[in-house]
From TrEMBL:
Keywords: DNA-binding, Transcription, Transcription regulation. This is TetR-family transcriptional regulator. GO terms for molecular function: DNA-binding transcription factor activity; transcription cis-regulatory region binding. Residues 1-46 form the HTH tetR-type domain. The keyword Transcription regulation applies. Transmembrane segments: none annotated. Residues 9-28 bind DNA. The keyword Transcription regulation applies. It comes from the Bacteria. InterPro entries: Homeodomain-like_sf (IPR009057), HTH-type_TetR-like_transc_reg (IPR050109), HTH_TetR (IPR001647), Tet_transcr_reg_TetR-rel_C_sf (IPR036271), TetR_C (IPR011075). It holds the Pfam family TetR_C_11.
Length: 174
């Protein structure tokens, strides 16, 4: 992504990776698909830590997320494909399927763990389905905006305040 989105080609990627272009084209139709999959792999590194409380678990995963977003390849890759997806519905759907939907596992895991600890009451499946998207969007949207749009750090102090505010909303509605 050092070349910028408009100049990036699979040929450049193949040269840098030391493989034939045909190797890349067997797996990806073009740069959109390749970059989405590369960014998705970065986000697949996220793990919900078991720190003993829902608040500490959220803080841990948000700090991991911010650290990934601080990496140049994640920052440039994510911003490029999101910008390009404004004009490309298929790309937007690929982002949703490959990145967003895969990471919602963290919300489900955190909710289940907090319920097992007694921090959140059991929820019916309909309510869980409605809130998973909302919770994910609140966390991901806020952290992406903070780090990439506003170019401000998501450090421990900020993450602690964000988590406290998020949990006030979660416990008020459950």
């Amino acid at each position: 992504m050092e070349l910028g989105w408009s100049k990036l080609t699979l040929g450049d990627v193949a040269t840098r990776a030391g493989v034939a272009k045909t190797t890349l084209y067997r797996r990806w139709a073009g740069k959109n698909e390749l970059v989405v999959d590369a960014v998705a792999e970065l986000f697949d590194e996220l793990r919900l830590p078991d720190c003993g409380t829902l608040a500490a678990d959220i803080e841990g995963v948000v700090l991991q997320f911010a650290a990934i977003l601080a990496r140049p390849e994640a920052k440039s890759g994510l911003m490029a494909v999101v910008a390009e997806s404004v004009r490309d519905d298929a790309l937007r759907e690929r982002i949703r399927a490959s990145i967003v939907d895969r990471q919602k596992r963290l919300v489900l895991e955190g909710r289940a763990r907090a319920q097992a600890r007694g921090e959140l009451p059991p929820a019916d499946p309909e309510e869980t389905a409605r809130t998973v998207d909302l919770i994910f969007d609140m966390v991901a949207g806020t952290v992406v905006h903070r780090t990439l749009v506003s170019a401000r750090p998501a450090d421990e102090v900020w993450v602690r305040g964000f988590t406290r505010l998020l949990l006030q909303g979660l416990t008020a509605t459950t």
